[in-house]
């Protein structure tokens, strides 16, 4: 099938590439000329495992093209995807200006029946707004073409998005017309060979499904962080608690790892947007507000542990140099949107400390965000970040950070202390090497625990 996708960001680029991989003829549109030219040269603007070779292979085969010519892309597409950003507005609601701008563009150029697909994460009722915008543009042209607006939300995990797209757990399709559903089924047929992954529903239910899924996962994370904070107060080990509840099949093992808070482009803005939608309809979302509040507080918890070790109120932190392992909000991505590292670095700098940071992929993005600073040095590897550092802080759970030589850590760090925001290490093992160890609901973070000196 011929597919047009508006947006070459995370969702648009991954979706377009995977559709091309299974044989569809895909044209991706973006208003950023430099970005489009780079993509046509094989320059990938985001880091996602497996994406770059797939983009290059499908571009070389002629199944994947990039352009700024919206009219040509719309003329090409049997199905036209809207996959542009929906950043949070000032009140936390989703800003639909880019989505509606694309809708108006589609209305200005379609020249026959069309299936328009909302791939962007959008609030309930957005399909109606897109339909209205297209209709207004058609009316202004004095033409009348049949079209339908389908909700087809993405469920891509950053760091594993290509696999998620190629082997989806489910494909949610919200539509009103049978012919639109049939067209979407034909589009996704290559992904349905061993079983039918398509879940059909009405448009508004499909729009709500994406927000509900992300809000549920965010709730599990905030809940476990709340339990970790309780564990620190009562002297329990949250890792043992995690194993105890994860073995319950009603709960499961996914998304119950406590840590320094969730970040990225999805959970923070989707929880906020769903909460604002609820308020607009007269319902106060108490649980969603609590999820967001717990996560906001959790992002400051690592610094609280650092303050505790150095005497409180930050006075012992001034003049110290901290090695920071990990800047991205999660491993296998260079995404620093709402990353916990951003809050931590700001707190360390405000307290008068210096930072030596290493991240396998996010350094370039961090340089763009923070610029040149006397109190920040980016390092080429994890060992380089340790040189001359007083303490180590682990913020992102990259695999290469999971099994360090603790004796080398002790030799490198002046103050013999590790602050672990992702609970990567066993307290007994790291303390046996002579290092003080603070984690989230483990080690010296727990009041009165056996590892305290």
Give the structure's gist in a few sentences:
The protein contains 18 helices and 14 strands.
Structure description:
With 453 residues, this protein is an alpha/beta fold. The model has no long low-confidence stretch (mean pLDDT 94). The strands form three sheets. Strands 3-2-1-4-5-6 form a six-stranded parallel sheet, sandwiched between helices. It contains 18 helices and 14 strands. The relative contact order is 0.09.
Q: Which SSEs are present, and which pair or pack?
A:
Elements: E1 2-6, H1 10-21, E2 25-29, H2 33-40, H3 51-60, E3 64-67, H4 70-76, E4 79-82, H5 97-109, E5 114-118, H6 126-141, E6 147-151, H7 161-166, E7 171-174, H8 178-188, E8 198-201, H9 203-234, H10 238-246, H11 267-280, H12 286-298, H13 301-309, E9 321-325, H14 340-350, E10 354-358, H15 363-370, E11 376-378, H16 382-386, E12 391-394, H17 406-412, E13 417-420, H18 427-432, E14 436-438
Parallel strand pairs: 1-2, 1-4, 2-3, 4-5, 5-6, 7-8, 9-10, 9-12, 10-11, 12-13, 13-14
């Amino acid at each position: 099938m011929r597919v047009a996708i508006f947006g070459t960001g995370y969702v648009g680029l991954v979706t377009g590439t995977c559709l091309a991989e299974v044989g569809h003829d895909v044209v991706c549109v973006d208003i950023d000329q430099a970005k489009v030219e780079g993509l046509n040269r094989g320059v990938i603007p985001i880091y996602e495992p497996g994406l770059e070779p797939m983009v290059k292979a499908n571009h070389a085969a002629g199944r994947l093209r990039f352009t700024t010519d919206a009219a040509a892309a719309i003329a090409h597409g049997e199905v036209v995807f809207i996959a542009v950003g929906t950043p949070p507005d000032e009140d936390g609601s989703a800003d639909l200006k880019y989505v509606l701008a694309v809708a108006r563009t589609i209305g200005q150029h379609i020249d026959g029946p069309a299936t328009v697909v909302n791939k962007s994460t959008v609030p309930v009722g957005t399909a109606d707004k897109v339909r209205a915008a297209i209709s207004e543009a058609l009316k202004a042209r004095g033409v009348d073409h049949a079209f339908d607006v389908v909700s087809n939300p993405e469920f891509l995990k950053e760091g594993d998005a290509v696999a998620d797209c190629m082997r989806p757990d489910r494909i949610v399709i919200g539509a009103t017309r049978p012919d639109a559903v049939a067209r979407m089924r034909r589009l996704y047929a290559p992904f349905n060979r061993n079983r039918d992954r398509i879940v059909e529903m009405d448009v508004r239910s499909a729009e709500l499904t994406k927000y509900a899924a992300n809000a549920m996962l965010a709730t599990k994370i905030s809940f476990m962080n709340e339990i970790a904070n309780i564990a620190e107060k009562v002297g329990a080990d949250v890792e043992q608690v995690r194993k105890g509840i994860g073995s319950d099949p009603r709960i499961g093992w996914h998304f119950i790892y406590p840590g320094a808070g969730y970040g990225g482009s999805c959970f923070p803005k989707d929880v906020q947007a769903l909460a604002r939608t609820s308020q607009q309809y007269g319902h106060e979302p108490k649980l969603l507000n609590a999820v967001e509040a717990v996560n906001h507080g959790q992002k400051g918890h690592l610094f609280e542990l650092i303050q505790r070790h150095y005497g409180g109120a930050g006075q012992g932190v001034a003049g110290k140099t901290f090695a920071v392992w990990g800047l991205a909000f999660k491993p296998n991505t260079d995404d620093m949107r709402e990353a916990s590292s951003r809050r931590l670095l700001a707190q360390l700098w405000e307290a008068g400390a210096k930072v030596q940071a290493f991240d396998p992929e996010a350094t370039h993005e961090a340089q763009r965000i923070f610029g040149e600073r006397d109190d920040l040095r980016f390092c080429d590897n994890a060992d380089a970040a340790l040189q001359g550092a007083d303490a180590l802080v682990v913020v992102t759970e990259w695999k290469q950070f999971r099994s360090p030589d603790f004796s080398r850590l002790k030799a490198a760090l002046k103050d013999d202390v590790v602050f672990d925001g992702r609970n990567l290490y066993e307290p007994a093992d790291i303390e046996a090497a002579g290092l003080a160890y603070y984690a989230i609901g483990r080690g010296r973070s727990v009041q009165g625990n056996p590892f305290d000196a």
